[in-house]
Amino acid sequence: MGRIAVLKIGQGSFEQGFEVLLRISTDDGRLLTEIEGNLLPNPGIEGFYISWQTLFRRLKMPDRQYNQSQRGFDDDWEIDDTLPTNRATSDDVEVCRHLVRDLESRMKKWLQPSADENWQKIRERLAAELANSSDEIRLVIQARNPLLWKLPWHVWDLLELYDIGIGCVLPEYTATSLENSHLKVDKQVRILAVFGDDSNINLQPDRDAINDLPGTDSLFLQQPNSQDFIRTLRQKQGWEIFFFAGHSQTESATGRIYISDKESLRLDEFKNGLKEAIANGLKVGIFNSCDGLGLAQELVGLRIPVAVVMQEAVPDEVAQAFLKEFLSEYAAGKSLYAAVWQAQKRLEDFQHLPGATWLPMIFQNLTDVPPSWQLLQGTNSGLSEVSAQKFTANANRSLSNAIIARRGSIKTVFVALSVSLIAAFAIIIIRDMGVIEPFQLKVFDSLMRTRPMEPPDPRILIIEVTPKDVNAQIRPPDEGKSKSLYDSYLARILDKLATLEPRAIGLDIYRDYKIQGKYKSLIDRLRQDDKLITICQVGENASNTGRSPSPDVLQNSQRSDRVGFSDIVVDRDGVIRRHLLSLTPPNDLKISPCQSHLSFSFLVALRYLHDDGITASETSDERPQFKINNVVLQRLKPNAGSYHNIDAAGSQLLLNYRSSGNNIARKISLLEFLNNPVDRNLVKDKIVLIGTSDEAYGDFHSTPYGKMSGVVLQAHKISQILSAVGGKTQRPLLKGWPQWQEDIWILTWALAGGLLAWQFRALIAIVLSFPMLGILYYCSYTLLIRGWWVPLLSPSLALILAAGVTVLTYKIQKYRIAKLLSSEVQNE
């Protein structure tokens, strides 16, 4: 089914700009879109056209143009008496060629993107329609100012890649009545060809072009008198095409044809004969004569479906070439618009007549579909166009067709909603099976990385034991085991930190052995310094017995707030996205020598908050949750976000990494800290973490921000807690929606895809789904920044699936309805 794009140009002028309206509809009258906009002023274009028009008339006289002294022109078309009319100079041709180039250049710039946002929407919608529709699209210009019809619209950049013709319609129109439409019995195209006054012109090539058409029944009238002409026009057997060649001109809003060298008729003087001819099946009027704009307006006003005319005084050779090419292409099966456009393009052969391609014009009744040659013959290949014509005006559709169309519309809405529901439930089921979990997690990682960059956390300093630091340490002779940090160096670090007054110290290095007595100061500090937090590892079973805490930390002390477990939870793809706050270790010390219930990061954060008078408590829920400063650290559920039945044992949070990634905090190497002065402001009242960045010790992990050392990972966890419970740099904890809310979210976007496809009912709906995906991405991104992990992939899949299946279903339904209508027409 074809489509028509109407560019309605309303109030305005070339000096002030014009109001415009783009309306796109199908040939069955279904409106697809309507967009308002404005064309900016283009004050010089009118003058350029008139200059071209005046000069063009000088290039080829007399030929098919009027003898001015004999016939005369309408005032608006008058040629200066001082201009020579017997020949054109090469300078005239060159000047005319420059005018054509300048006018076409102005048209291109005028129709380019402008400051008017709605004009850009018109361009984008029309471009999408041209690019994605496999059916014929006709562009028509609806205007009150006749000059707007005459301009070279075909140079519009949107049209250059597409082989479509351009037509014109009147500012007001009336739907064509089909009640008395003539039904053909034979398969020949009946043509009434009238050859009028041939003064100074040769009409024989026009006669030959019509005579050579196959499958036609043509009647030729050579300079008839008005009575014979009108009687022949209204014959009851009817004509499909009325053709006129000779002299003609526009007079105000109508036209005049010179049917002989003695007699002429205005169209309004034989309008009743034309009305009878139209009622008897006349569908196409062709006026291969000069200045036919008034003829076209009058004919379309009488409700002829389409008229082809020349807008200007046309040279003889141009008129003959156009007619031959047009009729040849039309009879060969091209649509009327395509045939006219093909013939127009071939007029560029006349290089000595710049602008010749602008001369032919199509005028049509907006409620009619221009007939194909097959339809004029009455063959079966025209049935689809017959159906399309019957659909053009609601008042003239048959009752059966109206019922079919109405049922189709209701069914399509129902199908769109049904498909959307099915698509949503299909994606929900696939999600609940865990099929798309790995892909959703990757999308989540990508969203995390696209967040705005954050500065390092100023509350944390990392003393990093780099590979260079490991190699530079002097190994004591009595310590046989290689270590990332020897006792003597740890003692020096803690002694220096004591003078700089940190609020908390976190030692992220396993020390599951008793320190030698010669390091008494280190032993005392490990036993007594309540600012110092160390680590151990909880065992899971006999094959994984974990790592013991430092014996010197717990000796002579029953306090458990000095040792935290370092255990982490890793997703199925090996990436860390969760923060384990607490767990219940096995009671068997052989399996779990580490009996700490709280994580290292949690204890360090609590130690920092302690100096601000902030403590942690537990809620009284069935599964208690930690609460700090009125902020509840909500436990992660097995199906939160994009997860599917994960092990959510203990108290787990989604890890809201700081977007600075590996630059979470200021870092200083071990040797740099020990051998150089340290700015007191970097340490005082801060958290100092001590850990290794040497991959040889295996403390590296996969994160959404790539590989990350254990001490940096601990910094992210500590920073998350501190930032969530207060302070100037407050950041939200990440939370997931309940599963029923996620289901509604997926269903909402599936409905959006289905309704989008129902609205446009074409592949363009698939194209428009991409901006919808952009909106979905923006929503997920914005919610993530505000602390909500909302799935992105599952609703995206639901949207695309619903849109695609709805379009496919509509295409099948449309095919069935068209087949049914075709069958009905055959029965008629």
How many alpha or pi helices? 25
Strand content: 15-25%
Distance between the termini: 21 Å
Q: C-alpha Rg, in Å? A: 42 Å
Q: Mean of residue pLDDT? A: 83
Which word captures the global form?
A: elongated
The main pleated sheet reads as:
13 strands, mixed
Which stretches are low in confidence, meaning pLDDT under 50 for 5 or more residues running? 62-87, 177-181, 380-408
Structural class: alpha/beta
How many strands?
A: 28
- Give helix % range: 25-40%
Summarize this entry quickly.
The protein is of the alpha/beta class and about 850 residues long. It has 25 helices and 28 strands. A hairpin with a 7-residue loop joins β19 (about 615-620) and β20.
Give an overview in words.
With 828 residues, the chain is of the alpha/beta class. The protein is built from 25 helices and 28 strands. Strands 1, 2, 3, 4, 5, 6, 7, 8, 9, 10, 11, 12 and 13 form a 13-stranded mixed β-sheet that branches. A 6-stranded parallel β-sheet has the order 17-16-15-24-14-23. A 3-stranded antiparallel β-sheet has the order 19-20-21, with no helix packed on it. Helix 5 links the parallel strand 6 and strand 7 (216-222). Helix 23 packs parallel to helix 25 (793-827). The protein is elongated, with a radius of gyration of 42 Å. The two termini are 21 Å apart.
